[in-house]
Inverse folding.
């Protein structure tokens, strides 16, 4: 049905670049997806504790038809300021929605809670606008996975989280990609072992090739001592979409989060998926039916890749997957 793209990254979707910035002492960072041209976008929230900026603009009945960038950030509510740095960069490059003779970049964003991960949060001034601008200026086709960008200080139940990405190309040539910052209340691995819940959807050995394990009896492990979690993601395609159909793609992509994180969409997670379209290929009727499923599969794989590629740092509250299992 679909194969991984050449990079196996969201930047396999033509017209997209990703920029990332992190502060090792802060144990936090920012990841931004930038379109070479404005992108049609939608959003769907299924977690009970979201933190967002400008998501109302993505409603199908809202005036703005496209966005210039999408931001994922650590920092809880402080991280919403990351979009300000991205807005400054876009404005300096002559990008934005024209209003009364002014260019106003449209940059929705979402945040995850990483304030309790052992990093130094005693800042004199909010650092996230600066990190957002650094991430914008660093945009390119490569995407560092694991401990990078918005996933720098992320955790899941029992393990370090991170940034993940994956892609798929349909038989028609339509490309779908996912980008995710994994900071979940639940587990991405099964029981006490190394195998990922996302294993049925793995492409090759992109997160170890360990295969499937039957779920053990009893409930999954969670970070119940943590009040702040959230997995935030972007799925993207070069297919031509409306805001309504982009929103439908975001809805479908949440299935991938639920397949890869157990439990997901809890009252203590702010789980959110943005969907974006660069509008370069027409969808066949079959592709219209498959798009949400392929986006979900990419997202499940990206979640596992985030945790699989995490790297250790001083004072981490949890080990990385490789420290514990490799």
């Amino acid at each position: 049905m679909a194969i991984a793209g050449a990079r196996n990254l969201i930047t396999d979707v033509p017209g997209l670049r990703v920029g990332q910035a992190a502060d090792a002492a802060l144990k936090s960072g920012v990841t931004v997806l930038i379109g070479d041209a404005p992108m049609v976008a939608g959003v769907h929230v299924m977690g009970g504790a979201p933190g967002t900026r400008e998501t109302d603009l993505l409603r199908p009945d809202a005036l703005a038809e496209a966005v210039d960038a999408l931001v994922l950030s650590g920092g809880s509510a402080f991280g919403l300021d990351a979009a300000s740095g991205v807005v400054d960069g876009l404005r300096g490059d002559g990008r934005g929605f024209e209003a009364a003779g002014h260019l106003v970049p449209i940059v929705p964003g979402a945040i995850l809670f990483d304030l309790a991960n052992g990093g130094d949060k005693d800042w004199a001034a909010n650092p996230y606008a600066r990190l957002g601008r650094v991430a914008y200026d660093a945009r390119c086709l490569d995407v560092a996975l694991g401990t990078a960008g918005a996933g720098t200080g992320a955790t899941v139940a029992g393990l370090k989280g991170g940034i993940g990405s994956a892609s798929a190309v349909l038989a028609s040539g339509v490309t779908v990609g996912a980008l995710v910052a994994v900071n979940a209340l639940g587990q991405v691995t099964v029981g006490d072992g190394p195998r990922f819940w996302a294993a049925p959807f793995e492409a090759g050995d992109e997160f170890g090739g360990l295969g499937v394990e039957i779920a053990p009896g009893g409930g999954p492990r969670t970070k119940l001592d943590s009040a702040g979690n959230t997995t935030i993601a972007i799925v993207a395609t070069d297919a031509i979409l409306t805001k309504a159909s982009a929103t439908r793609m975001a809805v479908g992509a949440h299935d991938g989060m639920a397949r890869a994180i157990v439990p997901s969409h809890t009252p203590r997670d702010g789980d959110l998926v943005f969907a974006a379209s660069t509008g370069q290929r027409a969808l066949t009727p079959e592709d219209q039916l498959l798009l949400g499923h392929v986006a979900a599969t990419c997202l499940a794989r990206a979640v596992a890749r985030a945790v699989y590629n995490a790297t250790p740092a001083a004072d981490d509250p949890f080990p990385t997957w490789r420290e514990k299992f490799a």
Remarks:
- The radius of gyration is 18 Å.
- Residues 47 and 266 are 6 Å apart (CA to CA).
- The helical segments are 82-92, 128-137, 243-260, 285-308, 321-325.
- The first strand starts at residue 2 and ends at 3.
